[in-house]
Every structure is written in C-alpha cells, then in structure tokens.
Amino acid sequence: MALRLLLFLWIAAALLAGFLxxxxxxxxxxxxxxxxxxxxxxxxxxxxxxxxxxxxVLYLARRKLEHDDQAAAAAELGILxxxxxxxxxxxxxxxKWGEYWNWDPRETTIFFLFLIYGAYLALRGAIEGEEKRxxxxxxxxxxxxxxxxxxxxxxxxxxxxxxxSPIVPQRGEQDSIDPRIAVCFVAMLLGFTALFxxxxxxxxxxxxxxxxxxxxxxxxxxxx
Amino acid sequence: MPPSGSSSVAAVWAILRKECRSExxxxxxxxxxxxxxxxxxxxxxFAVGRLPDRTDLLAALLWVVLLFAALxxxxxxxxxxxxxxxxxxxxxxxxxxxxxxxxLLFNLLFLAVLELVTVPLYLVLMGGPPPxxxxxxxxxxxxxxxxxxxxxxxxxxxxxxxGRGALFAAxxxxxLMVVLAAGVSGxxxxxxxxxxxxxxxxxxxxxxxxxxxxxxxxxxxxxx
Amino acid sequence: MSAVSATAMATxxxxxxxxxxxxxxxxxxxxVSFTLSAPGVAAVTGPNGSGKSTLLRLLAGLLRPTGGRSTxxxxxxxxxxxxxxxxxxxxxxxxxxxxxxxxxxxxxxxxEARGAREPEGLARAALERVDLGERSRxxxxxxxxxxxxxxRLAFALLHRPPLLLLDEPGSHLDDEGRRLVERIVxxxxxxxxxxxxxxxxxxxxxAAERIELRGRGLGHIA
Lengths: 224, 224, 222
Fold this sequence. Notes:
Shape of chain C: globular
Oligomer: heterotrimer
Number of strands of chain C: 10
Radius of gyration of chain C: 17 Å
C-alpha cells in the first residue's frame, strides 16, 4: 500500500519536474517533454517482452503455470507500452519531421513487435486447456523472440532512417545534456519500470486467484 | 532406447515418403495451393499490368505472391494429422524431432513445386528483365527455406488451436516479415546489378536461428 | 500361431510412483503407485472417468504427468518417455491410421520409421497374425470398425515389443476377434508384459493382477 502510494507520488513528481523544473533541450524545444514518456515506454516494452520470453522458457523447463501467468501478463503490458511508445513517437515525429509515421526502422520494428505479440495473444485465445495453452504459447513466444533481432539488420536496408540515432538527442554536439533533464528522464524510467512490475504482479495474483476459484468449483462439483 | 542417429534418419526419410504418398493420393493440398498461387498471381498481374522496368515492384510482388501461397498451404500437413487423429500413431513410431524435420522437408518440397509453376509464370506475365540466375535462385532458395522452417513450427502449434485457418496466417506473418524484407531487398539487388550477399547472409542466419530453436522446441509440441 | 517373439524373455518392468494427471484443473487420474514386471498380465479396471485410458497414455509416454512419475525399464535400461514407442505396443480406441493409405502401407511406414530392416515383411507378418492378410491392400478408409481394431492389434504387435498396453482391446470385435485377443495376450504373457485397461470381465479375467482405479481413491494391486 505504502509502496503503491510512493510509486504514484514518484511518477507524479517526475512528471511535474519535467514540465516545471527541467529546461528544454536545445533543438527539441517543447517536444523535449515527449521524451519523458517515449523512451521509458519503449524501454518498458523491451523489458516486458524479454520478461515474457524468459518466463516462456521457464515454463517449458519447469511446467509451473505461474510462469505462464507471468509471460501472458508481461506480453499484455508490453503491448500497452508498445502502443504508448508508438503514439508518443508519432506525435514527436509529426512535430519534428512533419509526418506521424514514416516507416523509419524503429517505427517498423515497433510495429512488428505489436503484430507479433498481438498474434501471441490471439493464439492464446484460440487454445483450450490451460496446460496446452501455456505450452504452445511458450513455444510461439520463444520462436517469435529469436526472430526479432533480425529486423534490426533487415529493415534499414529497405527504408532509410530518420530517427535520431543517439537515443538521447544531441549528445555528441553539446558536451552533455542538462543534468535536470537527465534526472527527470531517469526518474521516469525507474517509475515506468516499477509500474510495469507492479501491474504484472497484480495480473499474476489475479490469475492465481481465478485458477484457485475454478479448482474449488471443480472440486465441489466433483463431490456433489 | 534413445533414438540413434541412423534410426532418426530412417524416421525422417519414412515420414517424408509417407507425406508425399498421402499428398499424391489426395492431392487436395497441392492442387489448392497451386490454384491459390496462380489466382494471386493473376490478381497481381491484372491489377498492376506489366512492369518491365520496375524491378523494385517486381521483387516485392513476387515475394507477396509466394508468401500468400505459403501461408495458404503450409499448415495443412499438420492439420491433416490433427483432423485424422493420426498424431498418436505418428508419435509412437517417430521422435518429435524426426516428425518436425520430416514435415519440414516435405514443406520445402511442396514450396519448390509451387515455385516451379509460379516463378516462371510470374516472370513471363510481369515482363521483367531476365534475372541473374545465380543470385536470384540463391535468394529464392534461402527465402523458401526460411519460409518452410518458420511455417513448419508455427503450423505444428496452430494445428492444435481452434480457428486454425485464419490464425495460421495471422500468427506466421509477423515472424516472416524479416524473410519478406530480406527476400525483396535481395531480389531487387540482383536485378539492379548489386550483390545480394548481405541479404543471403541474413536469410541464412535467420534459417540457422529458427531451425536451431525449432530443434529445441519440437520436444514440447505434443504432450497430450 | 508360431510367431516366435524376438524379445524372448526380456526383463520388463513398469512402475508408477504417485503418478497423476490433471487437465485444466480437472483430475484425469488420481495418484497411483504400482510395479509390474514380466512375464505377466495386469488389468486396469475402474468406472468411466477414473483414468484408465489416461494411465495407459501416461505409461506409453504420450502424456506428460502432472505429478509423480512412471518408469519403464527394459533389460535393465530405463527408457525415456519419448523413446517408449519403440518398445511397446499400444492399442486404444483413439488410435487412428492414415485413411488414404492401405493397412500394409500404414504398417510398413511404421516399421520403416522405427528403422526396421525388412519393413514390409514385418508388416505382412503382423497383418497375417490378425487375419487381415487378404485385406492388406485396401485403404484404411474402407475397413469396418472391427477390421480397424484388428489393424490396431497388428500395429501393436508389429515390432514384437516386450510390453503391450491394450486399452479396451476387444471393442468392435466379433467372437473370433476376441479369441484373437486372448491368444495374443496369452502368447505375450509368456515372454513379456501386458497391461489391459478394461471393464469387460472376459478381458480382465485374462489378468493375474489387477489395478483398480476408483473415482478419486488410490489405485492398488488387488
């Protein structure tokens, strides 16, 4: 409870600081603030999909449904943060490049990640029996995850990139970014990461409770 | 008795021959796939007309036709086992890896037959410049290998889900985007007189990765 | 029937320790423990839904247990679940063959896949044993359900395995067929091990030992 409140205050404070305390980065103007959402979202998306894949492997190795709950919850949240990163990125792109979407390599990659994990959830929905669903979804998750790095090699050959290649802008030209921007940015990164793990743990607990209730209902039906 | 190397080879060979014989007896798989491929080809060629000087479009549309033909047909080798309830029989005589590789080889053969009809027809109908056969066949061959490895594993997973027809395409497609991108870029390069080596290397690495992961994952495909 | 078993007096032991299976939270098989060894015949009996078929699929390595484990030991070597198909014959109502192939082609394929030296000869011999020799070239789709059951028996005997797992082996069979099952069980029991899942008195009477599965109770050897 206290931690939850702390997390809320933390993110709210970082947000306010980003708008009121930190200066604007030169060359980015007002769009600086998008970075406080955009990069943490993209980061959490990467964490979430990696977490999902790791738990898929663990499920195949140990066959504990808890791992499947983790994998599913992380994939769902990963999609959410994927959408958040895409929307914030599109807004930024509109402001800086004039178009919402340019099929820039990073945009392409994020789009395919969305498709892959959307397919993962669609597949889950189509398999009956929780052990079977967990097993087959884990197989798909692993194979999907290993194909993702190839996008990085292939896509730039088809489309040229507009995305600033140093993720935090102008690192090379000006010696360093303003430390206040860095503080807000890191605070948001930590806040988003904590938010992800907290919501994942909620989803996992919910899944556990639902399973327990179903088991209890099945057992009661069996004896009656 | 752990399956020894030679008995696994025997199993793969027996499965490949069995698949061919079943396909020859029923023929609905290959007939439907050929018709579908030719129909797609016709639609594409009617829609865009002849493209003698647009090698970028020629490369893209050829892969789109092949991708759709593959997605329409390459799951059926597993779907047939599930619908005929013959997986128990198969699992009693061969290891999961032997089943996976046998099916993979069959899918590859299937794709080769499909391409033998589609590709020449495509080149004639679209009126493209003659390809440089070496790089052309290299990219086509590696791309087909990549298509077959991915769809074999995904087909084995999706055949155990509900609504497998539509799901198979939706679930395979995001994984095949890399193959599509590399295939298109490679074919374009050979038409424009550039080396297709980088694309061939990406495709080869992709095949090696997916095949390696598949060999680990086949063991988890059938457990009930 | 002079088919000499190739596995004359193999030492076979099948054991289950706390073997159980759940599917989506539903109990498929309550924990059972037993040890069976060749030569001999054991029957698995119990009401519908008590898990007879589940138990046989678990022993065959087709199903992964939720809890406990099963072990198959042949000539002192423990056989991993995935490799058990080569050492046991399995008959079950769910076992289906390729409709578009003939009985002979189906069994030849099975023998080939297992790496047999003379696959077609083995397949013919197995089909003769269940009196399907004359129909061996007919497609499976054209066989009656009784003939399909004989084909299942032929498939189980194909590689002369030291262990037979028979789930309702007499289903769809006429009197002649049932006598065939008795002969098969009798011959196998001299050299190897047979486990029959059945509620048919004619079948469990063939067994010396009995594993009774009760709804949710514990299995034990009666």
